[in-house]
Amino acid sequence: MRMLLIEDERRLAQSIARSFRESAGYAVDVAVDGAQGVYLAESNPYDIVLLDLMLPKMDGQSVLTRFRERGHSTPVLVLSARDEKESIVRLLNAGADDYLAKPFDLGELLARAKALVRRGSNQRTPVISIADFEMNTVERTVRRGRQEILLAPMEYRVLEYLAHHPRAVISKTELLEHLYDYNWEKFSNVIEVYISGLRRKIDDSSSVKLIHTVRGHGYVLRPGGIAEEARPS
Question: Which residue of 85, 89, 94, 165 shows the fewest CB atoms closer than 10 Å?
Fold first, then answer.
């Protein structure tokens, strides 16, 4: 998952970014003012935006309004020292999905952000089940039947993104855009490497295959075969 954090308090921004990278495995882009936040939001796809209200160059309310006026549906969680009821109502009416007053607990922030990401992909619970496959996105564990499967961090992130979009064909470009931050280096075959590792760990010991390649389009997580499937060599 990829997150945009728009926060001008640099120490706080560093703390939040580190927490999401280490605890949730998110790729995080950080903007330190509203104008930079708008530029990044309009230039890259994100799974969630954390938005401070008191920002230089363009305040958070204006950023949120512009973001929604441009048709972006990415979940937005607003962070602010303001805790007045009128302010909260105004933000929610402007398109914010949730609100957290400063100071806040990082654990609560993580939980709220993950809940919004799930809601954005129509996942009601943190446990995603497909056939005998189960992924717990809170505990970050993966099982196939009764067997727990140990994944490398990037393998988990690829699988988590596919699991949040079950049965949808996800292109290699989309995976790259949602798994790496703004400074990522482009390696043409990195996704193929992770998919190959996931197939070996998830599918090799089972007769029901879950990870499929759709020729010329990308990858899909679903049980059984699909039309136009390219068998891995």
Answer: 85
